[in-house]
Amino acid sequence: MKHKILCGCAVFTFAVAMTPAQTKISMSGKCGKPDVEQSVPAGDQPGHNFMLAQGKCATKGEVGGAASKEGAFSEHRDVAGNHSKAWGVYVETFDSGDKIFYTYQATATMKDGALQTGQDKWQMTGGTGKMKGTKGSGTCKFTGTADGGLDYSCTGEYTLAEAAPAKK
């Protein structure tokens, strides 16, 4: 019996040691008014619209020692009255030129068609260069700005992919 317990503990310890450590992340930024924004009425009730939007963001943050440089989003929204739901893709570019790809799902409150506040859940789905294979998740909170953009602040955790062993 002691042998089974010791083997179980050894396997658990090995598994924990081989699991990449999660690193905490904190990011923030400002997105301008979307460069592209299109809307079509859903047709079922006044004020219910489906929208597409695309724009750019100035970013602050660091992943794996690389400083964030800029971001770009593409999303689709379901807006009904003073509530909005959005799903999208965010591409963050770092000073090295590497990129991280995110997907997100957001909810927000609106007033007279302008964004007031909101929150989202995001997932890192991969990247390029040093960021290839990066995984992570977290949340953001955001507020609308007078110019039609938004300010955001995010937290979460990520794991960089293991570097491939050097070829001999």
How does this model look, in words?
- The structure is a single chain.
- With 168 residues, the chain is mainly beta.
- It has a single domain (33-159), classed as AOC barrel-like, CATH 2.40.350.
- The protein is built from 1 helix and 10 strands, in the order αββββββββββ.
- It has one helix at 2-18; strands at residues 23-31, 36-41, 48-60, 62-63, 66-80, 83-94, 99-111, 114-127, 135-144, 150-159.
- Strand 5 (66-80) and strand 6 (83-94) form a beta hairpin.
Task: Provide a compact summary of the structure.
It contains one helix and ten strands; from the N terminus they run αββββββββββ.
CATH topology, by name, is: AOC barrel-like
Instruction: Indicate how many domains the architecture comprises.
Output: 1
Main β-sheet, spatial strand arrangement = 1-3-5-6-7-8-9-10
Q: Compute the number of strand runs.
A: 10
The string of secondary-structure elements, in order, is: HEEEEEEEEEE
Which parts are unreliable, with pLDDT below 50 for 5 consecutive residues or more?
Answer: 3-19
Shape: elongated
Mean pLDDT score: 87
SSE diagram, text form:
Elements: H1 2-18, E1 23-31, E2 36-41, E3 48-60, E4 62-63, E5 66-80, E6 83-94, E7 99-111, E8 114-127, E9 135-144, E10 150-159
Antiparallel strand pairs: 1-3, 1-10, 2-3, 3-5, 4-5, 5-6, 6-7, 7-8, 8-9, 9-10
